[in-house]
Write a structure and sequence with these properties.
Aminopeptidase; single chain; 7 strands; seven-stranded mixed sheet; alpha+beta; 28% helix; 156 residues
Length: 156
């Protein structure tokens, strides 16, 4: 298992990971948001001008990208926001998600130990994040699509 910074060569693999997780974990309508994120990464740009930085990583297993995820640091808010964390469906329950998530937390703390870490996820994965000490802040029914509820969570 090897975690490294995303490059434009990983674009198709990350979209494939997303598609493997539709419609249970992601709604297909979210793909355009992921594509915007990846395109910004490809071009060395920020998706959101209000951010100080945006980072994205991939996890390789035997030279194949099987997971990805990132975070951004808003310029005027003391939070770090986790984004697009996912493991290809064929590789679930093998520890890749845990490794990738722990790596991103470590990278955030290297940059700024004062920021709270926030994320949003669905009813299918919120318990995974609770195991890292995240707490539910808000639940919004059908926020991602019909039957796919949003759980906003924080690690202080």
């Amino acid at each position: 298992m090897y975690i490294r910074r995303y490059t434009h060569y990983d674009h198709a693999a990350c979209l494939n990971i997303f598609k493997s997780n539709c419609s249970h974990y992601f709604d297909a309508s979210e793909q355009s948001y992921l594509e915007a994120w990846l395109t910004a990464q490809d071009n060395g740009m920020l998706v959101y001008e209000s951010n100080l930085s945006e980072d994205f990583f991939v996890l390789e297993q035997e030279d194949k990208v099987v997971a990805c995820g990132g975070f951004y640091l808003p310029r005027n808010n003391l939070i770090a926001n986790m984004v697009w964390g996912m493991v290809h469906a064929a590789f679930h329950k093998q520890g890749f998600g845990t490794a990738m998530f722990a790596y991103r937390i470590e990278k955030i703390k290297e940059l700024d130990t004062t920021r709270a870490i926030v994320l949003d996820t669905s009813q299918h994965t919120f318990r995974f994040f609770e195991s890292f000490g995240f707490e539910k802040v808000k639940i919004t029914a059908d926020a991602y699509g019909e039957g796919l509820h949003r759980y906003d969570m924080i690690l202080k």
